[in-house]
User: Fold this.
Amino acid sequence: MAATTFDEVADFVIVGSGGGSMVAALYLKSVGKTPLILEKTDKLGGSTAMSGGVLWVPNNHIIKAKGIKDSHEMGRTYMDATIGDDGGPGATAERKEAYLRNGPAMLKWLEEQGMVWLHTEGWSDYYDDRPGGVTRSRSIGSPLLDSREMGPLFDKLRLGPMVMPLPTDKAGIIGLATRTPRGMWEGVKLLWRMRKVAKRGKPILSFGGALQGRMLMLADKAGVDMRTGYGITELIEEDGRIVGVIAEHDGRTLRIGARDGVLINAGGFSHNAEMRRKYGPQPSSVEWTNANPGDTGELIQIAEKHGAALDLMDQAWWVPGTMVPEGGPANMHNTDISKPHCIIVNRQGKRILNESGSYMENGQRLYQNDVPAYVILDSRHRKRYAWGYYPPGKTPQSWLDSGMMKKADSIEELAQITGIDPVGLKAEIEKFNGYCETGKDLDFNRGGRGYDNCFGDPTVKPNPNLGKIDKPPFYVMEMVPGDVGTSGGIVTDDKARVLRADGSVIEGLYATGNSTASVMGRCYPAAGASIGAAFIFGWIAAHDAVGANS
Assistant:
């Protein structure tokens, strides 16, 4: 490589600053290499920092210490039972095997570097009733992090839409603050922490903030060069190999060389309306997404221009949501709709999904039916449980005044003012209320899996996820397939190398995270499956780039 052709040269250039970028950079520093992380936005952390902040890693040492039965074979059986054989070229048997083999070793290695892990007890696999499933959780997060420990680094960390000092493993319990003693106690502790935060003016980070805050601290301590405001406009290719990138920074165009390769971890295209129209199911809107604002898809397009194959471009990490008159991204309701006394129906008044099930599957089911669909709540849901960012019993008057939420004293009236078939809706609710009495949802088996119960209400019998719709007033809102990122993109192999359509490798180019066609295919098998894949294949890419076995 002729150094004179570049403004500067690093061993490994990493585009984007999510979790997969950090772990790749940490490993490379540990073997004496010089990684360079280039982030186009003004904040570090990527989608990982805005996420639930957990990694799904079967057969890891943390869950084994908790006495949870698991094995490599169980993990593979479960992936086969959920993802299946039709996940596309990103979900090959070899990539699944690489995921399972490397995940436990990566978690252990990061722990040795100073990472602190937390087992998210109770976050069941989403299909734990299938072969190989685990109900007690394979998902690993990070404990609360006092942002004061980060020093000036905190100002560089991307934060999610709501920063709440709630431990990752208490997310299900806090939703029962008005219903159970444990929920009430967690609510008291949360209020106490929030008062502490208000007094000192610095947040206590949880979820993705705690995870990426710690990863950022480790990377900084290791001396990783991490830069913001560097937008990549092109990959530099010589003789079929990617040898660097062209970046725009402060009005300057820079050619940056990469001796060992380039890793794309720049997110998907949730905020690119044109790409959503071209590839995704319709209707669609950038207003529905809660994805990282940097998810604009240009690195996927640039890689394709250099021959990269693409797949699963119609898929996203769907999360059913509702819009509010204040604007902004859709309120996410994946845990809210799991609670009793609510259902989701189409225009004919028919239920279309298991409200307590996997949010990605529920987004897919919304698209298989009418978009938007309608979520119907009775008065007990609004009194007892949170809705979006609002606590129990708090319904903004602006929602009702704008018509985004409608209210009525009867089901027939609710149907009429919404445009739902009143006869169909009344019959469906009568049938559903019967299921609530028996505890058996004969249509969608709501409450029949461990994951369903994670966010149910155990005080409601005989099924914690089933509660009648019969106490007025009744409420309705349009429900759309929101998302937290797209899950299709660049096709990679089991070494995270970017592939052409004919299966050949584009030398020097790697990819991970939401920039890639997911190893999970069209399924989301458990909490942390997307973040886990981003970390694991970032780790794998770094090893391959320096000729090390992962």
